[in-house]
Design a protein that fits this description.
14% strand, alpha/beta, binds 1,4-dihydronicotinamide adenine dinucleotide, Rossmann fold, globular, 15-hydroxyprostaglandin dehydrogenase [NAD(+)], 8 helices, binds the ligand CCCCCC(=O)/C=C/[C@H]1[C@H](O)CC(=O)[C@@H]1C/C=C\CCCC(=O)O, EC 1.1.1.232, 15-hydroxyicosatetraenoate dehydrogenase activity, 222 residues
Length: 222
């Protein structure tokens, strides 16, 4: 997708990755911000996310990371759907590599992110995308230096079990900067036919396409 003149919303854009994604988009043209003011929506980035595993926080993790992402996607579709007067568009859902591989210190977080990957790739596989003109892509960053990572890391260090294994997981993936992830994000958004793409970005392995699905959805051969 060419970015100049497009209208974009980035949820959770006040800090961390969300702020990086919004700034990255702004650097690519005269990106406009608000549907009411600009009469349409071309890109939604469902970025807002939290990590809480405690009895009083785990439901909020599912609520924001998974349910909020589904609600945001559904709302965006009502503006983007070509068969309902929209002009098509792109939904980018921010998962995590914890949505591709297990994170034993964060089963609820990891479960919510596996949900994001499953939901987004399933939406992309729906033949209806050919009528609606809406594309769905998933971005899976690994450890990235933000407040969320700092908080999670502190919680991990206060936990006495599995520290060696966690340290190895962090060393294997490395800790990347927001700019590293924004670089992958812009490549994903600007790709010509990105429906169904799942991109992982990590310090050690860089940008990897975990999954590329052709524009024309195909039935699964199960
Ligand atoms: N930092 C990391 O290592 C990784 C982060 N991610 C994902 O990237 C996304 C962004 O994370 P970070 O920038 O690291 O976190 P962050 O904590 O630095 O920023 C998250 C932003 O989302 C906002 N937010 C949280 N709940 C919200 C809600 N209900 N409504 C609106 N805004 C809300 C926060 O106020 C904050 O501005 C999240 O979905 C996270 O799960 C994925 C992989 C790795
Ligand atoms: C291995 C356990 C580490 C737990 C502590 C931690 O640093 C968690 C960080 C998460 C942060 O809250 C948001 C994320 O998505 C981070 C986890 C990201 C990737 C985990 C899987 C890494 C991999 O092996 O690719």
């Amino acid at each position: 997708m060419k970015l100049q003149g497009k209208v974009a919303i980035v949820t959770g854009g006040a800090q961390g990755l969300g702020r990086g994604f919004a700034q990255g988009l702004l650097g690519k043209g005269v990106i406009k911000k608000v549907i009411k003011e600009f009469g349409g929506l071309d890109i939604l980035v469902n970025n807002a996310g939290v990590n809480g595993e405690e009895p009083e926080t785990w439901r909020r993790t599912i609520q924001i990371n998974l349910i909020g992402m589904i609600e945001g996607t559904r709302l965006a579709e009502t503006y983007m759907d070509k068969s309902a007067g929209g002009r098509g568009g792109l939904v980018v859902n921010i998962a995590s590599t914890a949505g591709l591989v297990p994170m034993f210190h964060g089963p609820v977080y990891s479960g919510s992110k596996y949900g994001v990957v499953g939901y987004t790739t399933s939406m992309a596989a729906d033949p209806k995308t050919l009528e609606t003109g809406v594309s769905y892509a998933t971005l899976c960053p690994a450890f990235t230096a933000t407040e969320l990572f700092e908080e999670s890391h502190e919680t991990l260090l206060n936990n006495n079990t599995g520290l060696d294994l966690a340290a190895k997981q962090i060393t294997d993936a490395g800790i990347q900067t927001v700019a590293d992830v924004v670089n992958g994000f812009l490549q994903l958004v600007e790709a010509d036919d990105n429906n169904g793409f799942v991109m992982a970005v990590s310090k050690q392995k860089g940008i990897q396409y975990v999954h590329r699905r052709p524009r024309k959805p195909r039935a699964n051969k199960l």
